[in-house]
Amino acid sequence: MIRFILAATMIFCGFARAESLKDTTPNVSVIGEASEEVAPDRAVLHFGVITERPTAAAASSDNAKAIEAILSQLETMGVAKADVQTQGVFLSPISTEDRDAKGKAKTVQAYRASNSLAVFVKPAEKAGDVIGAVIDKGANSVDGVDYDNSDLTAKRDALRAAAVKDAERRARVYAEAAGLRLGRVVEIRPFDEAAPRPMSEARVAMARDAFSAPLRPGLQRVTERVSVTWALAR
Asked: Residue 134 and residue 45: Cα distance in Å, rounded?
């Protein structure tokens, strides 16, 4: 317990000292930024099957058959079982109104079964072919495609280091213009990690006609920003 209190005290003192240095020492705070255009190397497809039948058993059975056909097609196309994830399975009653020959309204009871999947596809350029194939096998609900890069963590680390270097370059310009030089680093404060920004549409609403041409993964701009404060000296 004593060790914990001592450690907490040292951390608090460290923050307090940093604030004290900023308050009592001439300093300059600069935001550094580094960006890179990254080509996605994999895609995540979101689609499923919706089936409506007069009975719950028929809806569930026919839906399961369609999903089995889709899974078989994915395996034929080289998609590993580990890259296929079930994200939702639902069965619910639905009611619609209809009219008989005499024009009298009546309620028709049926059931809707749905099963949604997320499928990881690599390379990303294969996404269009996969979506087209599963639609032919019975998929009738397509929610979109997300693009990703499997080496994004390493790329972000490199950009973080580059952002600090960019902040130092900018700070040195300000310091030298004022006839000063950079001293010790007082504070480094990274900004919250931002999601990669697509340079082309990375999530699209899709219909069957969209697959007359391949999907284009395009590029994603990954950016890291950091605020660094230096003490100034003469």
From this structure: 11
pLDDT tens, position by position, 94-145: 987 777 677 677 777 899 999 999 999 999 888 989 999 999 999 999 888 8
Cβ pair 205, 144 in contact under 8 A? yes
CA 37 to chain centre: 16
Task: Tally the C-alpha atoms within 13 A of residue 175's C-alpha that lie toward its C-beta.
Answer: 22
Q: Could you tell me the two tokens for 196?
A: 């990669």
What the block records as the tokens of 74 is 């994915």
β-partners of residue 39 are none
CA distances from 89 to 54, 85, 160 (A): 18, 12, 41
Q: Which residues contact 224 (CB under 8 A, 6 or more apart)?
A: 33, 34, 35, 156, 159, 160, 162, 163, 190, 191, 193
Query: 160 Cβ partners below 8 Å, 6+ apart?
Result: 34, 190, 224, 226
